[in-house]
# Entry
Amino acid sequence: MSSRSQREPSKLSSRSRKSDFKYSKNGSQSKKNSISSDQKNRNIKRQKEPGNYTVIIFNKPFDTLSQFTDGEGRKTLADFISIKDVYAAGRLDRDSEGLMVLTNDGMLQAKLTQPRSKSPKTYWVQVDGQPEEKDLDKLRKGVELKDGMTLPAQIEIIPQPDVWPRNPPVRFRANIPTTWLAITIIEGRNRQVRRMTAHIGYPTLRLIRYSLGQFTLGKLQPGEWKEVKL
# Structure
Protein backbone atom coordinates (compact mmCIF):
# COMPACT_ATOMS: atom_id res chain seq x y z
CA MET A 1 0.00 0.00 0.00
CA SER A 2 1.45 3.36 -1.06
CA SER A 3 2.12 5.82 1.71
CA ARG A 4 0.77 8.81 -0.23
CA SER A 5 0.24 12.08 1.48
CA GLN A 6 -2.78 14.08 0.32
CA ARG A 7 -1.45 17.47 1.49
CA GLU A 8 -0.40 19.73 -1.33
CA PRO A 9 3.00 21.46 -0.99
CA SER A 10 3.25 24.94 0.37
CA LYS A 11 3.34 27.80 -2.12
CA LEU A 12 6.79 29.34 -1.93
CA SER A 13 6.50 32.09 -4.54
CA SER A 14 5.37 35.43 -3.21
CA ARG A 15 2.50 37.24 -4.97
CA SER A 16 3.22 40.52 -6.64
CA ARG A 17 1.48 43.52 -5.12
CA LYS A 18 -0.10 46.05 -7.48
CA SER A 19 1.37 49.51 -7.35
CA ASP A 20 -0.76 51.69 -5.11
CA PHE A 21 0.18 55.36 -5.31
CA LYS A 22 -1.54 58.69 -4.64
CA TYR A 23 -0.49 61.95 -6.22
CA SER A 24 0.13 65.30 -4.49
CA LYS A 25 -0.85 68.61 -5.99
CA ASN A 26 2.60 69.14 -7.43
CA GLY A 27 2.46 65.83 -9.30
CA SER A 28 4.88 63.90 -7.10
CA GLN A 29 4.17 60.29 -6.17
CA SER A 30 3.86 58.96 -2.62
CA LYS A 31 3.15 55.28 -1.84
CA LYS A 32 0.36 54.44 0.58
CA ASN A 33 -0.13 51.26 2.59
CA SER A 34 3.62 50.66 2.41
CA ILE A 35 5.06 47.59 4.11
CA SER A 36 7.78 48.24 6.63
CA SER A 37 11.19 46.67 6.12
CA ASP A 38 10.75 44.77 9.40
CA GLN A 39 7.52 43.21 8.12
CA LYS A 40 9.22 42.23 4.85
CA ASN A 41 12.01 40.55 6.78
CA ARG A 42 9.50 38.64 8.86
CA ASN A 43 7.74 37.46 5.71
CA ILE A 44 11.02 36.28 4.18
CA LYS A 45 11.97 34.47 7.37
CA ARG A 46 8.57 32.76 7.47
CA GLN A 47 9.01 31.53 3.89
CA LYS A 48 12.35 29.96 4.77
CA GLU A 49 11.11 28.02 7.77
CA PRO A 50 11.49 24.22 7.23
CA GLY A 51 7.78 23.67 7.76
CA ASN A 52 7.06 25.54 4.53
CA TYR A 53 9.00 23.07 2.40
CA THR A 54 7.96 19.71 0.98
CA VAL A 55 10.33 16.74 1.12
CA ILE A 56 9.39 13.39 -0.43
CA ILE A 57 11.28 10.10 -0.44
CA PHE A 58 10.46 7.74 -3.30
CA ASN A 59 11.44 4.20 -4.25
CA LYS A 60 12.07 4.49 -7.98
CA PRO A 61 11.24 1.30 -9.84
CA PHE A 62 13.44 -0.22 -12.52
CA ASP A 63 12.87 1.17 -16.03
CA THR A 64 11.61 4.55 -14.77
CA LEU A 65 13.12 7.91 -15.66
CA SER A 66 14.07 10.23 -12.80
CA GLN A 67 12.13 13.13 -14.32
CA PHE A 68 8.48 14.13 -14.64
CA THR A 69 8.16 14.37 -18.42
CA ASP A 70 9.26 12.37 -21.43
CA GLY A 71 8.45 12.71 -25.10
CA GLU A 72 8.87 9.01 -25.85
CA GLY A 73 6.16 7.56 -23.64
CA ARG A 74 8.48 6.00 -21.07
CA LYS A 75 7.59 5.76 -17.39
CA THR A 76 8.44 8.87 -15.39
CA LEU A 77 8.03 10.19 -11.86
CA ALA A 78 4.64 11.59 -12.88
CA ASP A 79 3.31 8.02 -13.13
CA PHE A 80 3.77 7.66 -9.37
CA ILE A 81 3.96 11.06 -7.65
CA SER A 82 0.94 13.37 -7.59
CA ILE A 83 2.43 16.27 -5.62
CA LYS A 84 3.39 19.21 -7.79
CA ASP A 85 6.31 21.63 -7.69
CA VAL A 86 8.90 19.24 -6.24
CA TYR A 87 12.13 18.42 -8.00
CA ALA A 88 14.58 15.55 -7.79
CA ALA A 89 17.71 16.09 -5.73
CA GLY A 90 20.02 14.29 -8.12
CA ARG A 91 19.25 11.62 -10.65
CA LEU A 92 19.06 7.84 -10.67
CA ASP A 93 19.66 5.93 -13.88
CA ARG A 94 16.68 4.41 -15.66
CA ASP A 95 18.04 0.90 -15.04
CA SER A 96 18.75 1.58 -11.36
CA GLU A 97 16.30 1.35 -8.47
CA GLY A 98 15.78 2.76 -5.03
CA LEU A 99 15.84 6.00 -3.12
CA MET A 100 15.15 9.37 -4.64
CA VAL A 101 14.59 12.59 -2.68
CA LEU A 102 12.30 15.23 -4.17
CA THR A 103 11.81 18.67 -2.68
CA ASN A 104 11.13 22.35 -3.32
CA ASP A 105 13.86 23.30 -0.84
CA GLY A 106 16.75 24.62 -2.91
CA MET A 107 19.20 24.55 -0.01
CA LEU A 108 18.45 20.87 0.65
CA GLN A 109 18.85 20.06 -3.03
CA ALA A 110 22.24 21.74 -3.05
CA LYS A 111 23.32 19.94 0.12
CA LEU A 112 22.47 16.56 -1.38
CA THR A 113 23.88 17.11 -4.85
CA GLN A 114 26.75 19.60 -4.87
CA PRO A 115 30.20 17.95 -4.70
CA ARG A 116 31.49 20.30 -2.00
CA SER A 117 28.75 19.08 0.35
CA LYS A 118 30.17 15.53 0.22
CA SER A 119 26.80 13.97 1.04
CA PRO A 120 27.25 10.17 1.23
CA LYS A 121 25.26 7.89 -1.07
CA THR A 122 25.02 4.18 -0.29
CA TYR A 123 24.14 1.61 -2.92
CA TRP A 124 23.37 -2.09 -2.67
CA VAL A 125 25.07 -3.56 -5.70
CA GLN A 126 24.81 -7.07 -7.10
CA VAL A 127 27.85 -7.90 -9.21
CA ASP A 128 28.67 -10.75 -11.54
CA GLY A 129 31.24 -13.02 -9.87
CA GLN A 130 32.94 -13.06 -6.48
CA PRO A 131 35.40 -10.20 -5.96
CA GLU A 132 38.10 -10.66 -3.37
CA GLU A 133 39.20 -8.09 -0.81
CA LYS A 134 42.22 -7.22 -2.94
CA ASP A 135 39.84 -6.28 -5.75
CA LEU A 136 37.69 -4.15 -3.48
CA ASP A 137 40.76 -2.46 -2.03
CA LYS A 138 41.32 -0.85 -5.42
CA LEU A 139 37.97 0.91 -5.14
CA ARG A 140 38.65 1.82 -1.53
CA LYS A 141 41.77 3.66 -2.67
CA GLY A 142 40.30 5.10 -5.89
CA VAL A 143 40.58 3.98 -9.49
CA GLU A 144 41.26 5.80 -12.74
CA LEU A 145 38.14 6.10 -14.90
CA LYS A 146 37.83 7.95 -18.21
CA ASP A 147 36.78 11.10 -16.37
CA GLY A 148 39.52 10.92 -13.77
CA MET A 149 40.35 9.30 -10.44
CA THR A 150 37.51 8.38 -8.13
CA LEU A 151 37.63 9.37 -4.50
CA PRO A 152 38.07 6.53 -1.99
CA ALA A 153 34.86 4.53 -1.51
CA GLN A 154 33.58 2.55 1.45
CA ILE A 155 32.86 -1.02 0.35
CA GLU A 156 31.89 -4.20 2.12
CA ILE A 157 30.52 -7.57 1.08
CA ILE A 158 27.00 -8.07 2.48
CA PRO A 159 24.46 -10.88 2.56
CA GLN A 160 21.76 -10.68 -0.07
CA PRO A 161 19.44 -7.92 1.17
CA ASP A 162 15.74 -8.61 1.71
CA VAL A 163 14.50 -6.65 -1.30
CA TRP A 164 11.69 -6.98 -3.82
CA PRO A 165 12.20 -9.08 -6.97
CA ARG A 166 13.15 -7.02 -9.97
CA ASN A 167 10.83 -6.86 -12.96
CA PRO A 168 12.20 -7.99 -15.35
CA PRO A 169 14.51 -10.33 -13.44
CA VAL A 170 18.28 -9.99 -13.59
CA ARG A 171 19.82 -12.20 -16.24
CA PHE A 172 22.33 -14.49 -14.58
CA ARG A 173 25.10 -16.43 -16.27
CA ALA A 174 24.86 -20.15 -15.73
CA ASN A 175 27.22 -21.49 -13.04
CA ILE A 176 28.57 -18.01 -12.26
CA PRO A 177 27.91 -16.85 -8.67
CA THR A 178 26.98 -13.28 -7.80
CA THR A 179 27.94 -11.07 -4.87
CA TRP A 180 26.16 -8.24 -3.08
CA LEU A 181 28.19 -5.18 -2.07
CA ALA A 182 27.37 -2.08 -0.04
CA ILE A 183 29.18 0.81 -1.73
CA THR A 184 29.23 4.33 -0.28
CA ILE A 185 30.57 7.25 -2.32
CA ILE A 186 30.51 11.04 -1.95
CA GLU A 187 30.65 11.77 -5.68
CA GLY A 188 27.89 11.72 -8.25
CA ARG A 189 29.41 11.06 -11.65
CA ASN A 190 27.36 9.53 -14.44
CA ARG A 191 26.93 5.76 -13.86
CA GLN A 192 29.90 5.91 -11.52
CA VAL A 193 29.25 2.79 -9.43
CA ARG A 194 28.66 0.65 -12.52
CA ARG A 195 31.89 1.89 -14.07
CA MET A 196 33.79 1.27 -10.85
CA THR A 197 32.77 -2.38 -10.55
CA ALA A 198 33.36 -2.97 -14.26
CA HIS A 199 36.83 -1.46 -13.89
CA ILE A 200 37.86 -4.22 -11.47
CA GLY A 201 36.27 -6.94 -13.63
CA TYR A 202 32.92 -7.45 -11.87
CA PRO A 203 30.05 -5.91 -13.85
CA THR A 204 27.02 -4.62 -11.99
CA LEU A 205 23.88 -6.70 -12.50
CA ARG A 206 21.57 -4.77 -10.20
CA LEU A 207 21.92 -1.44 -8.39
CA ILE A 208 19.66 -0.14 -5.60
CA ARG A 209 20.30 3.17 -3.87
CA TYR A 210 19.59 2.69 -0.18
CA SER A 211 20.52 6.05 1.31
CA LEU A 212 21.22 9.64 0.29
CA GLY A 213 22.53 12.00 2.93
CA GLN A 214 20.29 11.71 5.98
CA PHE A 215 17.53 9.86 4.11
CA THR A 216 17.09 6.09 3.79
CA LEU A 217 14.80 3.90 1.73
CA GLY A 218 13.25 2.26 4.77
CA LYS A 219 10.44 -0.15 3.92
CA LEU A 220 9.16 1.65 0.82
CA GLN A 221 8.30 -0.70 -2.01
CA PRO A 222 8.88 0.15 -5.70
CA GLY A 223 6.60 2.99 -6.75
CA GLU A 224 5.78 4.05 -3.18
CA TRP A 225 6.55 7.46 -1.74
CA LYS A 226 5.95 9.39 1.43
CA GLU A 227 6.35 12.91 2.68
CA VAL A 228 8.85 13.37 5.49
CA LYS A 229 9.40 16.11 8.04
CA LEU A 230 12.85 17.52 8.77
